[in-house]
Every structure is written in C-alpha cells, then in structure tokens.
Amino acid sequence: MEPLALLLARIQFGFTISFHILFPALTIGLASYLAVLEGLWLRTGRKVYLDLYQFWIKVFAVAFGMGVVSGLVMAYQFGTHWSNFSRFAGGVTGPLLAYEVLTAFFLEAGFLGVMLFGRERVGPALHFVSTLAVAVGTLISATWILASNSWMQTPQGHEIIDGRVVPVDWLRVIFNPSFPYRLAHTVTAAYLATALMVGGAAAWHLLRGRDNTRVRTMLSMALWMLLAAAPL
To answer: Running DSSP on this structure, what letter comes out for residue 231?
Structure first.
C-alpha cells in the first residue's frame, strides 16, 4: 500500500473501532446488570429493582443497536482496508466471526425481542430466562471476538499453504496463548465501564436533587461492582 493510503486506512479503521468498542463494552456490562436486577426483583419482590430494570433496558437497547451498526462497518473495513490480510488469514478469522454470529448474535437478538416486548406476553420466569440468555450471549460474543483478536497477536494451530493460512487445530487456534488474558481483561473492563456509567448516572441525579430509593440503590450497586472490578 502507498504510505498515504495506509495512513488513511489506519485512521479510518482506528476511528471505527474506537467508536464501536464503547457499545459492546456497555452491552456486556448492562446485560449482566439487567439479569441481576430482574433476579433480585423476582426474589425480593421489591419494585425498585423492576423500575431500574425498565430504565436501563432502554439504554441497553440503544447500545446494542449502535454496536451492531458500527460492528458491521468494521467488518466491511476488514475487506476494504485490509484485503491482503483478509485473503491471507481469512481461513481462521472468517469462521471465528461466523461462529460469533451463529452462536451469540442470533441468541442475543432473538431474546432481546422478548426482553423488550414480552413482559406482558410471557411469564416472569421466562422473561428472566430471556434476560439471562442475552447476558450469556454477550459473553459468548466476546469469547469469539477475543479468540480472533488474540490469534492475530499470538497465532498457533495453523499452517501456511500456498501463501494462505489453513487451520489444522481449531482448539489451538481458539485457545491461543494470549486468549485467556485478553478475554478476562476485556470482560472485566466492560463491567468496570458499565459500573462507572451507572454510578455516574446515579450521581448526576443526586446532584440534581433527585434523592430517592431508586437512585441510591443504583449508586450502591455501581459502587459495589467498582469495588470488585477495579482491583481485578
């Protein structure tokens, strides 16, 4: 590639991925937070947890939609900006991204519909299962994406035949040396970022004079998560 074309490709791809990562980070954290809120509501019957669930599910839906849209742009840029790399390593990166769609995205998207529109149509237990399914789906999605990213940094389980990567051991491809550390780091960072956003929202309401049980519960839960996630 010409130096200017390479620089422009890096700038555009860097902008896209920097914008995109904000939304998966929030969906991973908020999905688990919503599962905790609904579980606490079913166990205790306290309406404050249901109120917080109904508040944050709107934010989650927006973040999920923006993550899908920006992620599609990023996927296309693999081919438009880094076509030689895609041709060389597509035998590994392509299937890993496909596994993410088949095992995680369909799971998230399907049960997200039940989360958003099914509260009055299905029972509380099934709605909770839907929330759990979405939360698990976000973690599965992170697993496949981090497996692909980690393989690009610490590749193994492949051979190069006729100038192209050919996978020979998928377990070694997926569980490459840096994968466990990158996955743990990214998921913990997602929980940390979400806790900071939830705590910041609660603090903003308190500063505006909206001191009530919902806001204080939200702030307390965020601070407890920060206490656990920040040292990790």
So the answer is: T
* Phi, psi values for residue 123, rounded to 5°: -75, 165
Can you give the pTM of this predicted structure?
0.90
Map 46-99 to HEC letters. CHHHHHHHHHHHHHHHHHHHHHHHHHHHHHHHHHHHCHHHHHHHHHHHHHHHHH
Distance CA 177, CA 51 (A): 43
Name the residue among 219, 218, 186 with its Cα closest to residue 28.
Answer: 186
Instruction: State the pLDDT at residue 1.
Output: 58
Provide the 3-class DSSP secondary structure of residue 148.
Answer: helix
When pLDDT is averaged across residues 70-93 and rounded to a whole number, the result is 90
* Backbone phi, psi, residue 117, to 5°: -120, 5
Q: Environment class of residue 82 by beta-carbon count within 10 Å: exposed (0-12), middle (13-18) or buried (19+)? A: middle
Q: Distance of CA 194 to CAs 26, 33, 57, 107, 131, Å?
A: 6, 9, 13, 22, 17
List 159's β-bridge partners, or say none.
166
Q: Is 175 helix (H, G, I), strand (E, B) or coil?
A: coil
Sign of the C-alpha dihedral computed for residues 114, 65, 195 and 211 taken in this order:
negative
120-130 burial code (b ≥16 CB/10 A, e <16): eeeeeeebbbb
pLDDT tens digits along 101-136: 899 988 888 899 999 998 888 889 999 999 999 999
Looking at residue 145, its pLDDT comes to: 94
